Amino acid sequence: MHDIATSSRNTTAEEPPAGGDDEQLCIILLTINADVQLHIWAAIELGSSVFPLAWGFPFTLFLLFFL
Question: What is the pLDDT of residue 19?
Answer without folding.
Answer: 53
